């Protein structure tokens, strides 16, 4: 019989150090985003496939090749969420958040699923935290969103970031740009990769994001004009206003005239945060404005702007810069019974400290010397020894492992001593 002791390719268990990095990032995200007035939202990890087909877009790689889809027992087509935005907008519409004071600021964190080829920085189950601002279209909101994504990453100590900001214009602008690309590229169809030949039909802009060598070569030869040249007056004014706000906030950005995001719902502002020490998968996060998304899902028009950051990639970036996760609080006290029949009493003693203090007890009796060693190995600040005398008097002999000071005290006194740090 095959042994099931391996996680599925592209998925990972998270514990100890890696989880500490994740927690550091999520705490930073929560702190910043809640300070800026965001409410947390948790949407289901699966939705009707249509939410993503219509939201993220049928011509996107995500929908075309990367969704984990399945049919439930009732014959409904479902998909594990490849990203968070479409579900958040679906929830906004479903729960009538339109009647809340606008804009509604929401943040979320959780696992996302994409059936991509696993490699460093690319997994099939990965984690994102994200921010979505719905119900208003002012350029301040784009700038606020960009700035928060940048500040959170700076706030955990990352220095080697580059923030690339562009605009993909309004729908008519993209239609004009796609028409331009079609005209330019159609005579060279045969030279395009198979994927890009398909994109030429469905959404030529996506060709610009292709990593395939023949596509890259052709694009270079043809000196393709960037999307930014095709912005209409309104999208252009909006982009300029966003940049003015970013300068006002002292957020250092570069303009990327060619930015193409991997999702079809974007309109106007689009940005990505890259890390200079990561290789092929250098995008830590990205986002943009998506004013048409609610309508794609069948709702009324709702302007929106937001972003998501990939947690695993950001952890790689933190490691590359030598950054540590925020330290976890150590074990306060480790209690050891000196005889087998006293182990239940060790459990009871430990329970009296919970949840104010972090206290563990040993399930095996130990001699005092071994007990102290075990407490040291656990990283505890104090060791508690429970022998027959202590058990009889309801006390504990406690040793402060750093100073070596030892006292026999009742539980309330131990609490006080431990809380006071051992002074
Ligand atoms: P995205 O650019 O597709 O945007 O993903 C955001 C981030 O998620 C990426 O920059 C990357 O760090 C991480 N990521 C994506 N795919 C993988 C993967 N297979 N393995 C590891 N990390 C990955 C979105 O998802 C949009 N929903 C962002 C957004 C929110 N736009 C508006 N609102």
Automatic annotation (TrEMBL):
<keyword id="KW-0547">Nucleotide-binding</keyword>
<dbReference type="InterPro" id="IPR006195">
    <property type="entry name" value="aa-tRNA-synth_II"/>
</dbReference>
<keyword id="KW-0648">Protein biosynthesis</keyword>
<dbReference type="GO" id="GO:0005737">
    <property type="term" value="C:cytoplasm"/>
</dbReference>
<feature type="domain" description="Aminoacyl-transfer RNA synthetases class-II family profile">
    <location>
        <begin position="1"/>
        <end position="344"/>
    </location>
</feature>
<comment type="similarity">
    <text>Belongs to the class-II aminoacyl-tRNA synthetase family.</text>
</comment>
<dbReference type="GO" id="GO:0006427">
    <property type="term" value="P:histidyl-tRNA aminoacylation"/>
</dbReference>
<feature type="binding site">
    <location>
        <position position="132"/>
    </location>
    <ligand>
        <name>L-histidine</name>
    </ligand>
</feature>
<dbReference type="InterPro" id="IPR045864">
    <property type="entry name" value="aa-tRNA-synth_II/BPL/LPL"/>
</dbReference>
<dbReference type="Pfam" id="PF13393">
    <property type="entry name" value="tRNA-synt_His"/>
</dbReference>
<feature type="binding site">
    <location>
        <begin position="83"/>
        <end position="85"/>
    </location>
    <ligand>
        <name>L-histidine</name>
    </ligand>
</feature>
<dbReference type="InterPro" id="IPR033656">
    <property type="entry name" value="HisRS_anticodon"/>
</dbReference>
<dbReference type="InterPro" id="IPR041715">
    <property type="entry name" value="HisRS-like_core"/>
</dbReference>
<keyword id="KW-0436">Ligase</keyword>
<dbReference type="InterPro" id="IPR015807">
    <property type="entry name" value="His-tRNA-ligase"/>
</dbReference>
<dbReference type="GO" id="GO:0005524">
    <property type="term" value="F:ATP binding"/>
</dbReference>
<feature type="binding site">
    <location>
        <position position="128"/>
    </location>
    <ligand>
        <name>L-histidine</name>
    </ligand>
</feature>
<dbReference type="InterPro" id="IPR004516">
    <property type="entry name" value="HisRS/HisZ"/>
</dbReference>
<feature type="binding site">
    <location>
        <begin position="265"/>
        <end position="266"/>
    </location>
    <ligand>
        <name>L-histidine</name>
    </ligand>
</feature>
<feature type="binding site">
    <location>
        <position position="261"/>
    </location>
    <ligand>
        <name>L-histidine</name>
    </ligand>
</feature>
<keyword id="KW-0030">Aminoacyl-tRNA synthetase</keyword>
<dbReference type="InterPro" id="IPR036621">
    <property type="entry name" value="Anticodon-bd_dom_sf"/>
</dbReference>
<dbReference type="InterPro" id="IPR004154">
    <property type="entry name" value="Anticodon-bd"/>
</dbReference>
<dbReference type="GO" id="GO:0004821">
    <property type="term" value="F:histidine-tRNA ligase activity"/>
</dbReference>
<keyword id="KW-0963">Cytoplasm</keyword>
<protein>
    <recommendedName>
        <fullName>Histidine--tRNA ligase</fullName>
        <ecNumber>6.1.1.21</ecNumber>
    </recommendedName>
</protein>
<feature type="binding site">
    <location>
        <position position="114"/>
    </location>
    <ligand>
        <name>L-histidine</name>
    </ligand>
</feature>
<comment type="subunit">
    <text>Homodimer.</text>
</comment>
<dbReference type="Pfam" id="PF03129">
    <property type="entry name" value="HGTP_anticodon"/>
</dbReference>
<keyword id="KW-0067">ATP-binding</keyword>
């Amino acid at each position: 019989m095959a042994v099931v002791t391996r996680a599925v390719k592209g998925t990972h268990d998270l514990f100890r150090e890696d989880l500490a990095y994740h927690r550091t990032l999520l705490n930073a995200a929560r702190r910043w985003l809640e300070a800026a007035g965001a409410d947390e939202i948790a949407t289901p990890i699966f939705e009707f496939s249509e939410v993503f087909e219509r939201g993220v877009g049928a011509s996107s790689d995500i929908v075309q090749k990367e969704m984990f889809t399945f049919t439930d027992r009732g014959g409904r087509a479902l998909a594990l969420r490849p990203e968070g935005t479409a579900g958040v907008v679906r929830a906004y519409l479903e729960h009538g958040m339109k009647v809340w004071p606008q804009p509604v600021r929401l943040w979320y964190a959780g696992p996302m699923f994409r059936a991509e080829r696993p490699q460093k920085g690319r997994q099939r189950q990965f984690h994102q935290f994200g921010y979505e601002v719905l119900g208003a279209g002012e350029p301040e909101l784009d700038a606020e969103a960009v700035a928060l994504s940048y500040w959170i990453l700076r706030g955990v100590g990352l220095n080697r970031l580059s923030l690339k900001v562009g605009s993909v214009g309004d729908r008519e602008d993209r239609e004009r740009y796609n028409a331009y690309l079609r005209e330019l590229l159609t005579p060279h169809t045969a030279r395009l990769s198979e994927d890009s030949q398909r994109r030429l039909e469905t959404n030529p802009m996506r060709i610009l994001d292709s990593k395939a060598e023949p596509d890259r070569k052709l694009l270079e030869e043809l000196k393709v004009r960037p999307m930014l040249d095709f912005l209409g007056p309104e999208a252009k004014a909006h982009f300029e206003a966003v940049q003015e706000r970013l300068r006002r906030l002292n957020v250092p950005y570069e303009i990327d005239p060619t930015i193409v995001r991997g999702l079809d719902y974007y309109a106007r502002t689009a940005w990505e945060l890259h890390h200079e020490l990561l290789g092929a998968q250098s995008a830590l996060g990205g986002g943009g404005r998506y004013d048409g998304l609610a309508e794609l899902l069948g709702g009324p028009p709702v302007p929106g702007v937001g972003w998501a950051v990939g947690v695993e990639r950001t952890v790689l970036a933190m490691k590359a810069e030598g950054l540590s996760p925020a330290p976890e609080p150590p074990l306060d006290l480790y209690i050891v019974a000196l005889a087998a029949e006293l182990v239940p009493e060790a459990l009871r003693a430990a329970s009296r400290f919970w949840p104010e203090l972090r206290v563990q007890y040993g399930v095996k009796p130990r001699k005092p010397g071994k007990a102290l060693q075990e407490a040291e190995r656990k990283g505890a600040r104090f060791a508690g020894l429970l022998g027959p005398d202590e058990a009889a008097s309801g006390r504990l002999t406690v040793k402060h492992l750093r100073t070596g000071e030892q006292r026999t005290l009742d539980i309330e006194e131990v609490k006080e001593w431990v809380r006071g740090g051992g002074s």
